[in-house]
Amino acid sequence: MVIKLARFGILLVLMVAFSEGQSKETAQPAKPCQSPVLLKVARNGLRSLKLREVPVYVYRGWQCRRSGVSREAFRKVDQRQLETDYTKAHRFLSWTSTWAYCVTSVVFLFYLEKLT
Fold first, then answer.
1. What is the rounded CA–CA span in Å between residue 111 and residue 116?
2. Nearest 5°: phi and psi at 103?
3. Rounded to two decimals, what is the model's pTM?
4. pLDDT tens digit string along 62-86?
5. Do residues 18 and 41 touch, judged by C-beta distance below 8 A?
């Protein structure tokens, strides 16, 4: 009796979940480009996002681009990010330089070994 009641409860929960998932009414934001994540990226750039916010940014950006409102805004954000990355790439700092020196020395020693 308890098992039948548990199965009925599970079946009822699944039916309600599927019926709600199939409903036509979805809460679409009135202005998808006004998402807090998109505004944060517009102010501070893409590097200001945390790892958990990246999928939200991609989805909200897709919604915003689909609405056709602000393609130019995304171009500006991308261009600004490219410029900041370019200016930061002039310096060889921290882990990048350590890794590059190690790889260079390994390659140099490999070819030195081949010559001898």
1. 9
2. -65, -40
3. 0.49
4. 888 887 766 777 788 888 888 887 7
5. no
